[in-house]
Amino acid sequence: MVRETVPWTKKDLLGIEELTTDELRLILDTAESFREVSAREIKKVPALRGKTVVNLFYEASTRTRTSFEVAAKRLSADVLNIAASTSSVVKGETLLDTVHNLEAYRIDILVIRHSCSGAPHFLAKHARASVINAGDGLHEHPTQALLDMFTIRQHKGKIEGLTVVIIGDIYHSRVARSDILALKKLGANIVLCGPPTLVPGYFADTGVVMTYDVEKAIADADVIYSLRMQFERQQANFLPSIEEYIRLFGLTTERLKKAKEDCIVMHPGPINRGIEMTSEVADSPRSVILDQVTNGVAVRMAVMFLLARAAG
Amino acid sequence: MWVSVMKDENSLLIQNGRVVDPSQNLDETASVLILNGKVAKIGKDADTAAKTRKGIEVFDASGKVVCPGFIDMHVHLREPGFEHKEDIASGTKAAARGGFTSVACMPNTNPVTDNSGTVDLIEHKSRMVGSVNVFPIGAATLGMQGKDLSNVGELVEAGAVAISDDGFPVQNSYVMRRVLEYAYMFGICFISHPEDTTLSAEGLMHEGYYSNLLGLKGIPAASEEVQISRDIILGEITGTPVHIAHVSTKGGVQMIRAAKERGVKVTAEATPHHFSLTDASLVSYDTNFKMKPPLRSEVDREAIIEGLKDGTIDCIATDHAPHSENEKTVEFDKAPFGVIGLETAIPVVLDKLHHSGILSLSQIVEKLSVNPARILNLKGKGSLKEGADGDVTILDLDREIEIDPRTFASKSRNTPFAGWKLKGAPAATILSGTVVFSATGKA
């Protein structure tokens, strides 16, 4: 089991911002011990038996939602999946009322994904249940960052001192924001790369390096983290065209020749094959994208385990 | 309900208070006699004159400050159309409780105040159920659509004291030019809500370090500065006085200062929340800190303070914007912009600007009474000279309070100052010689 240097006391997991470095490490270490559960024949532990976990998703999701569902079930919890589009939300029921109604069932953990930044923080003030942020607007996606850190540690043995390059639409990416916070807390060097319209200058005060030259960026990278590019950004004048984006920032096998031999390639999914990276890159031995998905289950098991235990 | 009648109901002798009236360069302990709703005498003459009248009510203002009635020139009373947030009765009660004797109300009502009928409705309701004077501001364009001129003459004749685009800023510069040009003949000012909506777009808070941290789309300072610049230039070429509402940016203050130095007829106001709060408050995602223009950086806040000190900013106005609790208790994106301010303005001003040594009492009275009266051309207001209206604000500089929204007279509770402990509060509000609010509960 895990030797804890510091106990987990928080009621909710709302973001990486609120976590101390010790708490971050505690989650990663706890996830380590849950990793082997998924390798067993009977993939189950009784840690959350009798607890009710609700996945309340206001936005579409494949990975995150199924990952939380698998994680909760492997902990023996009872799981409810609610997609807003098929609930009374379409009749105009407010978020607060929806949660109050769910709490009437005395649920234990509420996993929320919402398009409004701060929605989990808003709920945490009004809910008795432990709230887990599964992605809020442009703000944070803490469990994604946690599984990303777990994956980097798995392949590189550490995070401190590594150079991690994040490429793409950072402005609109809650994954990037959470990753930047986590990487900073764990001592990595961060480089942000993308067009000026999508790489906010306000990050300059947080100790990251910013560059618009992808080949310069990847030359010294230990980890290349690619973000999904959305077509809508062209409509809103952030990009002139996807073609130009691919030309300037797309990851190809050719471009990656300039990167370090042992550098790994990551992506939160879903990938736009042929845009942020070619299929060759996505499926190459450097790519650890599917490991990220696998690790997501262990990390989410760890988070739910720690929250449930703190709730008593 | 009060009705103006020539009786001694509207007569009052205010004694022993420190009278601060910059319009007369007055700052001394003196009596003020109000007869039949008008200031009759100040000083020893007041006491003498009062003795010859039987049964005049006496208000003992010992230890208090006596000022010409405060005027909030930027208030949303929400009537007609949005009475679930506020109405003329509750809004003016809030004003009285806040120490204000007059308010000017914005035209983004429903129907929009772009016609004499709606102006008449507001004036009629104010007479029937209002606790303080209400001065309607007319819409600059029909329906506040920013396309066609309002019948400004009709509005002014009906009683509008100014025109504005507040809430729906005019985006088309050609239209703005014609509005100002046309309004020139009426001698009124245009109150500008400076916001380029193509730049503020989907923004929810000030664009800066915090909006990036919180993942909230930002409203760049540029969206305000661009339109302040535009409105100053258009005011300069048309000659129509332009009043910049709720200035929130350092760049905006600089441009107004430079324009004044050039002799342009521009004036400006700032709200209490803009000189006492910054975008750092937003980390809690509390919608009581969500308004337009947004709370900005510390650098901007300091520039507002500088502007208040050196006179670049002429007035303090609250932009009292009530929204019901249901509307504000939602995800940050979904909450409407706006915070109330009538019942917190004076304590915030006295604590943060006076007790901190930034502004003298005289300057505060200028910002809250003399200047608003001058800018809106309100006859008989902003002064305690003989013949002026008997509107008086009595301040208790030393009273310590804690802001408790549950005690507000406003229908709404959306204040950023909940729980603040402040020193200084209104002691009484007197309208035409009648006490409409008293902190000791006599009114």
The coarse overall form of chain A would be globular
What sequence of helices (H) and strands (E) makes up the elements of chain A? HEHEHEHEHEHEEHEHHHEHH
Helix content of chain A: 25-40%
What's the β-strand tally of chain A?
9
Strands of chain B, count: 19
Percent range for β-strand residues of chain A: 5-15%
Cα-atom Rg of chain A, whole angstroms?
A: 19 Å
Strand content of chain B: 15-25%
What structural class do the secondary elements of chain B suggest?
Answer: alpha/beta
- Straight-line N-to-C gap of chain A: 19 Å
Averaged pLDDT of chain B: 96
Major β-sheet annotation of chain A: 5 strands, parallel
* Low-confidence region ranges of chain A: none
The global form of chain B is globular
Quaternary organisation of the protein chains: heterodimer
Overall structural class of chain A, as computed from helix and strand content, comes to alpha/beta
Query: Helix count of chain B, per DSSP?
Result: 14
Span between termini of chain B? 12 Å
Question: How would you sum up the major sheet of chain B?
Answer: 8 strands, mixed
Give the secondary structure arrangement, pairings included:
The complex is a heterodimer of chains A (312) and B (443).
Chain A: H1 21-35, E1 52-57, H2 63-74, E2 78-83, H3 95-103, E3 109-114, H4 119-126, E4 130-136, H5 142-156, E5 163-167, H6 174-185, E6 189-193, E7 209-211, H7 214-219, E8 223-226, H8 232-235, H9 242-249, H10 253-256, E9 264-266, H11 279-282, H12 289-311
Parallel strand pairs in A: 1-2, 1-3, 3-4, 5-6, 5-8, 6-7, 8-9
Helix pairs in contact in A: 1-5, 1-12, 2-12, 5-6, 5-12
Chain B: E1 12-21, E2 26-35, E3 38-42, H1 44-51, E4 57-60, E5 65-68, E6 70-75, H2 88-97, E7 100-105, H3 116-129, E8 133-136, E9 138-139, H4 152-158, E10 163-164, H5 173-183, E11 190-192, H6 197-200, E12 205-206, H7 209-214, E13 218-219, H8 221-238, E14 242-244, H9 250-261, E15 266-270, H10 272-276, H11 298-309, E16 315-316, H12 325-328, H13 345-354, H14 361-375, E17 392-402, E18 421-431, E19 434-438
Parallel strand pairs in B: 1-4, 1-5, 6-7, 7-8, 9-10, 10-11, 11-14, 12-13, 14-15, 15-16
Antiparallel strand pairs in B: 1-2, 2-3, 5-17, 17-18, 18-19
Helix pairs in contact in B: 3-4, 5-8, 8-9, 9-11
